[in-house]
Amino acid sequence: MKKDDCIFCKIANGEIPSTTIYENEEFRVFFDIAPASKGHCLIVPKDHFNDIFDMDEETGGRLFSLAVKVAGSLKKELNCEGMNIVQNNGTIAGQTVFHFHLHLIPRYTGDTVNVGWKPGEADTEELKALAEAVRKNI
Ligand code: 5GP
Ligand code: ZN
Q1: Which atom of ligand 1 is nearest to the CA of 97?
Q2: What is the reported pTM?
Q3: Ligand 1, pocket-test mutation among 42, 51, 100, most atoms within 8 A of CB
Q4: Ligand whose nearest atom lies closest to the CA of 36
Q5: CA-CA 20 to 30 A from 119: which of 8, 11, 22, 98?
Q6: Residue 93 and residue 38: Cα distance in Å, rounded?
Q7: What is the mean pLDDT of residues 21-32?
Q8: Is 40 among the residues known to form the active site?
Q9: What pLDDT score does 115 carry?
Q10: Strands 102-107 and 82-86
Q11: Is 72's pLDDT higher than 90?
Q12: Of the residues 5, 29, 97, which should be mutated to test ligand 1's pocket, given the most ligand atoms within 8 Å of the CB?
């Protein structure tokens, strides 16, 4: 399903132009308009999903399978040393476009990309209880 007022629905379905690397029936891969590094691109489904919580497992599986291929091709062509795969869900997590998209961000020595967090602390017993609780819903 498409959403009328969604910019990525329009890009994914070709109504708004993008520099497209690849497309098939279900997905479009295109360069980010404000790249964090050379080769920064996005994989978006042509159907509208707000975020990962809105997406079905099968679509997610096919999308990540495509991501593996695109990542390999980017690495081959750009000679990047590494890559961050980033996917933001919700304003709190930094999502600004509310149509699911996976960022592929090639990494190079001396780049200015900033993807990170401050390492925290965890209580093992608490983690065990949490693991059990979360497992129930999988
Ligand atoms: P988010 O912050 O939601 O994870 O990422 C949204 C991304 O979409 C940003 O990196 C932003 O630069 C990119 N973006 C927003 N609008 C457009 C657009 O019209 N065209 C392209 N190619 N990228 C866009
Ligand atoms: Zn959309």
Answers
A1: 3
A2: 0.97
A3: 42
A4: 1
A5: 98
A6: 23
A7: 98
A8: no
A9: 95
A10: antiparallel
A11: yes
A12: 97
